[in-house]
Amino acid sequence: MHETGVHHFQKDPAGFVSLLSCYETAWRWPDALHLLISTSSTRALISSAAGNVAMSACEKALEWEQALRTFWWMIEQSLQPDLISYVAAMSSCEKGHQWQAALSFFERMRLESIRPDVTCFNAAISCCEKALQWQQSLELLAAMASFRVASDSISLSAAMSACTRSSRWSAALYLFTATLPCAPCARSAQCAACAVRAAESCVRAAPEMLEMLQVTSVMAQQSAFQ
């Protein structure tokens, strides 16, 4: 079946990518990966787009190791990774709790002059949050400004959660209160809930601060359903 598909799409790289996408949609990551690698000798079909689809198929199936292997396979095939490649790679690192690998991909992007987007940052921050690397999470959040990438509720809540889970409750509360006046994402129910959890965990939190955060959380949840 694979050989027939390759023969059919030999002069149609876009169609070959579409075939891989069908496997991705059907959660058939082994078929997508096998088809990609088995056609490595057909240079007309091998592209970064094809590799990205195979990576995404593995990543969505939680096969993060296979996704990262596909990234390095692309390098071996002299294919130039693009932003989509790095998003898939860092999302895979998040699935596998590989925060150091995620940061190394960030460094590689910098060396290749590829500008990370909010999805890249969110994946890296979430990866650091799961590994209790709260300082790295805050550094990544701060780096978003230097790249002129606006943070969203995922960025902020992941950084706050990293602080809370690392018993840095004051840092989580400060992050929330400092960004609340200027960042609309801080008004989300997700961020407000993170702030409440931090306040409840912090024995030094003033009662009025906890009450204020609980009210903010309720208001944010109500606005989310409007």
TrEMBL record:
**InterPro entries from the xrefs?**
PPR_rpt, TPR-like_helical_dom_sf
Q: Which domain of life is it from?
A: Eukaryota
Record Pfam families: PPR_3
Q: Which PROSITE patterns match?
A: PPR
Q: Which UniProt keywords apply?
A: Repeat
Cell cycle in keyword set: no
Q: Gene3D superfamilies under this entry?
A: Tetratricopeptide repeat domain
| Ranges occupied by PPR repeats | 82-116
Q: What is this protein called?
A: Pentatricopeptide repeat-containing protein, chloroplastic
Species whose genome carries this gene: Durusdinium trenchii
Lineage per the UniProt record: Eukaryota, Sar, Alveolata, Dinophyceae, Suessiales
